[in-house]
Write a structure and sequence with these properties.
binds NADP nicotinamide-adenine-dinucleotide phosphate, Rossmann fold, 8 helices, globular
């Protein structure tokens, strides 16, 4: 890839879902620093406001992307405001500890609605705009989109689905000049474990166990993931599509 100068996303328009925390917040800020106008989406208005306060090019849109009609409304909000859309980062997602013995239809459906259906409907609504500007889609998967995760099989399955959507859309949309890639982070500091409803002591234990298992000896920082999302969004990344880029301190090799 040819290195782009600072501001290589100047005047491009990006949407980042889940921009109120963790990887999504870091990504919104990094894209804004690269010159893009960024629409940050999430349910908590206060969390999004904090993200937007970090850069004037970030606009907050509080919304539940699993709600009927919201994916189209999110895309419309960006195009109404800036007149175009170049980058869709499907980052909002959730994990769920759910061994088979405790598998519950409502929780499975909720996980799939957020991790698979909402990114699909957002990409669908974004398509005409991405076609016009030869834009790009970046889906946020996980190391566990391509490695088994006992005790959280449906999370792993939802991310595996997102990886196959990525490869299939990449082929489907290549003729339009639309690139579709996925970033697969390993365990990264964020609100994900707390958001999964786990008690603080369990969260701390999981974090310690993960750090021990990661060859580089620690969990990642959201900024370390965001930097690769910005690389994939870079218009200079003209010859990469359909790839799943794992950024996990070597975890997938273990
Ligand atoms: N952190 C990790 O270790 C890790 C590892 C691999 C993959 N990932 C993936 O990385 C992505 C980002 O997660 P994260 O780690 O940064 O966790 P996080 O801090 O929990 O961020 C997830 C974001 O998604 C938003 N969100 C959840 N449900 C939503 C909904 N229905 N509508 C709109 N927004 C919604 C949340 O905001 P609201 O609650 O305000 O809506 C939150 O800001 C996820 O797809 C996750 O699966 C994370």
């Amino acid at each position: 890839m040819t290195a782009s100068p600072v501001g290589h996303l100047q005047d491009r328009v990006a949407i980042v879902t889940g921009a109120g925390s963790g990887i999504g917040r870091a990504t919104a800020i990094a894209l804004a620093h690269a010159g893009a106008h960024v629409l940050g989406v999430g349910r908590r208005a206060d969390a999004l406001r904090e993200t937007a306060a970090r850069h004037p090019a970030i606009m907050a849109l509080p919304a539940d992307i699993t709600a009927d009609g919201t994916p189209q409304a999110v895309i419309d909000a960006a195009t109404d405001c800036w007149g175009r859309l170049d980058v869709l980062v499907n980052n909002a997602g959730a994990t769920a500890v759910m061994p088979l013995a405790e598998t519950d239809a409502e929780r499975v459906a909720g996980l799939m609605a957020l991790n698979v259906l909402a990114p699909s409907l957002l990409a669908h609504a974004a398509l005409p705009h991405l076609r016009t500007h030869r834009g790009t889609i970046i889906n946020i998967s996980s190391t566990y989109g391509h490695s088994p995760l006992p005790g959280a099989a449906h999370y792993a399955a939802s991310k595996a689905a997102l990886e196959q959507l990525t490869r299939s859309w990449a082929l489907e949309l290549a003729a339009d000049g639309i690139r579709v890639n996925a970033l697969a982070p390993g365990p990264t500091e964020s609100e994900a474990l707390t958001a999964a409803g786990l008690p603080d002591t369990v969260v701390e234990q999981i974090k310690q166990d993960e750090a021990t298992r990661i060859p580089l000896g620690r969990r990642g920082r959201p900024e370390e993931v965001a930097a690769w999302i910005v690389h994939l969004a870079d218009p200079a990344a003209t010859w990469i599509t359909g790839q799943i880029i794992t950024v996990d301190g070597g975890l997938e090799l273990t």
